[in-house]
Every structure is written in C-alpha cells, then in structure tokens.
Amino acid sequence: MKILVTGSHGQLGTELQNILEKRLPGITVYTDSDILDITDAKALEAIIQKENPTHIVNCAAYTAVDKAETESNLCYKINTEAVATLATVAARNNIKVLHFSTDYVFDGHSYTPYSESSKTNPLSTYGTSKRKGEMVLLSICPDAVVVRTSWLYSPYGNNFMKTMLRLGSTNKELKVVVDQIGSPTYAADLADAVFSILMSRQWVPGIYHYANEGVCSRYDFAKAILDAGKITDCRVTPIATADFPTDAERPLFSVLDKSLIKRTYGITIPNWHDSLLHCINRYYNNITD
Predict the structure, then answer these.
(1) Domain CATH for 273
(2) Which residues are designated catalytic?
(3) C-alpha torsion sign, points 103, 185, 195, 79
(4) Which residues share a beta bridge with 145?
(5) Structural domain boundaries enclosing 262
(6) For 56-69, how does the pLDDT look when each residue is reduced to its tens digit (9 = 90+)?
C-alpha cells in the first residue's frame, strides 16, 4: 500500500497526516496546493507515475461557503473539475480513491437524519459544487468511497471552534443561530475513521456519512466551546438564521445518519461533546498527536 494525500495542509489533511505518520510511517506522500495543482492533469499524472500510489485520499477542497457565491468559478474548479481530473487519472492507473463531501448537499427540510440515499438538493454554490464532485467521481471511478461530513473543526486552520474561542475572548456577547441543527465533527475522529477504511480487509465503494454522535444547534455548540475553553465573561445569545443573513443559504437541519459506515467498516463514533473537550485540550496545550 502507498497513499497519496491531497490537501494535506488543511484541517483533515493535517489530522490524517498525524495518524498515518504515527501508525504507518513512510508509506504516504503528502501534497497541497503549493506542491500539486490537482486541476492540472499533467502534474497529477506526473506525481502518480513517480510515486505509484495504490490509494488517493482527496482532502483538497474549496470550503469558503459564503465567498463561493461570488467565486463560483474557483469553487467549481476545485470541488468539481479537479475531482473529475483526479478521477480520470486514478481510473487510468487503477488507484482507489477516498473523497470527502458535505452535509450541504441537502436542503435541510427533513426532520429525521439524512441517509446516504436521501434526496439531495443543495442550496448554495458550495453545496452544488460538492454534489457535482460526488457524481463525477462515482461516474468515472465507481469503486470510489465518498465520505460526507458536517461542521468540521480541529486545532488547525479556520473553523467554528477557533472562531468562537477568539471572539469569545474579546467580546462580551456573541449572537449565534439557534435554528441550524446538525452534528459537529472533530477532524481527528474523522481521520481515524478514514484510517479504519484504508486498513479494512474489504473495500466497499459508495457514499457514507460520518459526523460525531449527538445533535446540537450552532448556539449549543458555541456555548459548549466557550464552556470548554473556560471563557466565562462572554454571553452567547441565540438568534434566528433570518436575523443573521449570509451570502450563502445553509440547511437548517443537516443531521447525518451514520449507521451505514458503522455497519460496513465497524467504526465506533465518539460523542461530539467528548471530542470537543479533547480538541480544545489539544489546542490550548499545543498537542499535535
């Protein structure tokens, strides 16, 4: 086995690198946009021929949800066109692909958790680009694995947890939407699940859902972040999504049903609150493993 990880400097890519370097040292090649432009078929083919990987884990993505509404060309270039390029090269070289998608492929009109077979109906450019990326990948590489996730956070990069800690330390009040419901995902837990898939005796292609166990609102999540970070002099005030307009529309309900990935790959998923405490401890203590 040899693994090529794209987008290795992002939240998930960094956590995956932590795990792979510790558990399987020396078998993974890490690339990011400064090393490899995955929209460049010739560059991708060149690194494939040089490294001869058996698996590609594609962590590269355009994730600026609101900016995507005005940067749609760039968003589609990374989340759809580059995935098509990667899939074409992978299929030509008989490489297994594991790719990540998002809860934003759903419109949030459900009141029960979304399964992998639930109807998709993205509300935003970002969500649409990710859904098209799923479809183009599976059309070219039907043996690929796609993992949809939600509300990703970690000690690295830009994310909701770090934003709340930063703003909570400098403001007396934060207004956070209470009617967006989902499940936070600790990137280290997702990376551990990816490792389990890569190491599984059987490779079962298709779409899977992964997020931490439990459900909360953005408001609940923000409150838990400040509590875990021991920030006591900032009040979190619940507001409606309608009172906090953004460029991109977000699903109000995006809880994912994770039973398929648990059943297929024997994965145990931690509770979101337990994982949040672990993540914040790592963040404050600069723990990297």
Answers:
(1) 3.40.50.720
(2) 126
(3) positive
(4) 98, 206
(5) 3-285
(6) 999 999 999 999 99
